[in-house]
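EI: anyone free to look at a 382-residue chain?
SC: sure, send it
EI:
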Amino acid sequence: MSLVTLNSGSSSIKFALYDDDGRARRLRGAVSGIGKTAKLSLTRTDQKTTEETLGELSHEQALEYALDRVHDEAGRQMRAIGHRIVHGGAAFTRAVRIEDGVEDRLRALIPLAPSHQPHNLAGIESARTRFPGAVQTASFDTAFHRAQPFVADTYALPRRYYDEGIRRYGFHGLSYDYLSHRVCELEGERRTVIAHLGSGASMCAVNGRAPLGSTMGLTALDGLPMSTRCGQIDPGAVLHLIGHEGLDAGGASELLYKQSGLKGLSGGTDDMRELEESGTAEAQETLAYFVRRCRMEIAALASTLEGLDTLVFSAGIGENSAFIRREICAGLSWLGVELDAEANTGAGRETRISAEGSPVAVWVIATDEESVIARDVAGLIG
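SC: here you go
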């Protein structure tokens, strides 16, 4: 029997196939470039990766293609499918089976995750159609943060809004779950800031495995600048845009979610690699802004922890950009961060890149959200 994990995003669909105990991964795949020239990549247990160009695919077509490949591998041995769900609100504090009423409750959270939740729900619907006999489960990016203290969870608004669900939910929780566990294995229970730096970017403070705060809030819009999302912004600026620039709520949402961040600042590209290679003043200013915001958030989270023992870089930018890691760490020597230049440049999937004797251990660790989902699925189906 087999378990499958499915991460149905807006521009890519990631999937993995596991044995029924959720431990041994047999296949990992992704359909990327949805809406453009889509590509399929497959990595098997021998770590050999094959790639195939699929042409232009809609999101629905990409889902069908991904699930067809899963069917080819698993056949009738499919037991359960675990889905990554970005927003679980206040109610979903751990993974659940998708049974009566669950999807309706998740659909009600679409306004809080408009770029993610609809695609997550589309994955559930497609998987149910393709594998009607399989158990469907949901693992939530917000669940990890539900254990954070009240002061990290609230806004300074009248308390009734907190009771109604206006809270700092935090995101990328599946990644933080995996990474905090891995840090404990490598370093023991430490005061750690984890930097999940990808097209969506956030940071989280953990003491051992206990979350104490993160950079994202009610939605996945707050905190660090991202590929097309603005990150931290004065709410008064949003009110000004609506009141004086002619934007309605829909226009403001489009601006802040899809036209800002690296794309907006640079005047064109949201690709960190292109920005690093560009010599334009706009590109350099965009990089400097991103680095500055990262340093500020690390410092703030370190103060929450009352010190810093370990700093972890992960996700697409965090794992692959030696330049960004170097620039961020260059401004953190006062915190005890000392980088080994050679180790940073040659970092692999799991590499300690701090200098010998550095008071703070600095790591690059490839995240593995699929393994967390697979563990959840195995636990739910027994």
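EI: The domain at 173-365 is CATH 3.30.420.40 (Nucleotidyltransferase; domain 5).
SC: 👍
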